[in-house]
Recover the amino acids of this structure.
């Protein structure tokens, strides 16, 4: 394989697999607010934020780290009062009790307003900070840290300049359209190990988050509940239970507001968890070598990116399920599976969890992480016995790349109507 493609694979993973503190949709609002505050250079008296329907969906029910509160209002206020404008997806890392209390006071006084924007962009946040006679507005769109415009007192001081034919996130490395799963498999089996050393940080960050989720009462305590029932004898331990509980625990902590970053994938911490923790736990259980772990993690994260790049950034399809397809590949690799068996595992997961909906970021996301992690293990164990969902069943095709395209067609097409119905239901609940 040509080393230029190797470079692109590695650069794409480095760009898409990055630390994120908290759910990334509220983070986008908090980051816009923090950048606006850095331009305003004084505490805001009021805040207004307009967000896309999909961002509203993913921000309504999720806890913002360090605040003890859920929703976009606290994300905007905390970002404006105590956010780090230069920290990207870790904008909230500088919060403390005093800053959070000031942010909460703004909300209690009715000084923070969140509305749904009239936009076709799935990911869009326009945040305006007001102080006396001055105001600053920052707009983030298309990706969670992509600032497209800054306005100060009616004067545009920055606007993203791009040709009309260029995608908004065109500066991000992208996998070539002709990439196949076999290309990815060949890459991870041949690339020198030292070039993959950076991916170990995904294990370090997400494992710490998992341990945090098991040690305290976060979210729905999905992971901790499963481990309690193992201790009580209601569940047996082993590979499947450990993968499910430890993966879910990381999501419990993340969605429950833990002040620890997740290593994200494709702009989502839960996707990063789903692409990491099942592989990490399987490697421990199988006593895999350090090299096997790194190659399996790289396979998982790169394949998760490959699948996600076939789909819209935010949709009605729960992307945790597709990220865990990367873990299915990674676990199958650790079990000694070859390319064909890895393909079997991914196709079986498509046959299993296709169509799981995304109804916003919330504590219950940990349950979807647990379901996806369990499916990854199940599909991998079937695959090494050469058992799999075939091309004669449902949307699964005879080859894995076609199966992935079929799944993405479902997500990008018919499920757009599902997405609107979900949004309508959630907005009515919020009224």
């Amino acid at each position: 394989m040509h080393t230029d493609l190797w470079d692109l694979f590695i650069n794409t993973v480095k760009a898409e697999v990055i630390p994120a503190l908290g759910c990334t949709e509220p983070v986008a609002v908090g980051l816009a607010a923090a950048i606006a505050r850095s331009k305003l250079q004084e505490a805001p008296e009021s805040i207004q934020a307009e967000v896309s329907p999909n961002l509203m969906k993913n921000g309504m029910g999720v806890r913002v780290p360090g605040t003890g509160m859920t929703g976009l209002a606290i994300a905007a206020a905390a970002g404006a009062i105590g956010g780090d404008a230069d920290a990207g997806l870790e904008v909230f890392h500088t919060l403390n009790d005093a800053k959070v209390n000031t942010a909460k006071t703004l909300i209690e006084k009715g000084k923070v307003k969140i509305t749904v924007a009239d936009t076709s962009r799935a990911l869009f946040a326009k945040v305006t900070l007001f102080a006396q006679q001055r105001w600053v507005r920052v707009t983030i769109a298309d990706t969670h840290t992509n600032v497209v415009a800054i306005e100060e007192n009616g004067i545009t001081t920055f606007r993203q300049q791009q040709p009309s034919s260029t995608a908004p996130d065109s500066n991000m490395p992208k996998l070539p359209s002709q990439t196949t799963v076999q290309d990815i498999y060949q890459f991870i089996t041949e690339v020198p190990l030292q070039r993959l050393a950076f991916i170990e940080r995904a294990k370090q960050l997400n494992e710490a988050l998992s341990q945090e989720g098991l040690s305290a009462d976060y979210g729905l305590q999905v992971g901790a509940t499963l481990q309690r029932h193992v201790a009580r004898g209601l569940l047996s331990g082993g590979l499947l239970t450990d993968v499910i509980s430890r993966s879910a625990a990381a999501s419990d902590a993340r969605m429950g507001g833990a002040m620890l970053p997740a290593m994200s994938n494709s702009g989502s911490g839960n996707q990063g968890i789903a692409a990491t923790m099942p592989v990490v736990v399987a490697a421990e259980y199988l006593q895999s070598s350090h090299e096997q772990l790194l190659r399996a993690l790289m396979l998982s994260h790169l394949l998760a990116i490959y699948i996600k790049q076939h789909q819209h950034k935010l949709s009605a399809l729960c992307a945790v399920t597709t990220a865990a397809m990367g873990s299915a590949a990674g676990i199958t690799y650790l079990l000694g599976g070859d390319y064909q068996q890895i393909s079997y595992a991914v196709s079986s997961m498509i046959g299993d969890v296709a169509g799981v909906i995304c109804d916003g970021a919330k504590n219950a996301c940990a349950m979807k992480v647990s379901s996806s992690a369990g499916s990854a293990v199940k599909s991998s164990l079937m695959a090494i016995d050469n058992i799999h969902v075939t091309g004669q069943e449902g949307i699964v095709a005879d080859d894995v790349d076609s199966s992935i395209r079929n799944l993405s067609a479902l997500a990008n097409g018919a499920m757009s109507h599902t997405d609107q119905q979900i949004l309508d239901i959630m907005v009515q609940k919020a009224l």
Notes: The longest strand covers residues 124-131. The two ends are 55 Å apart (CA to CA).
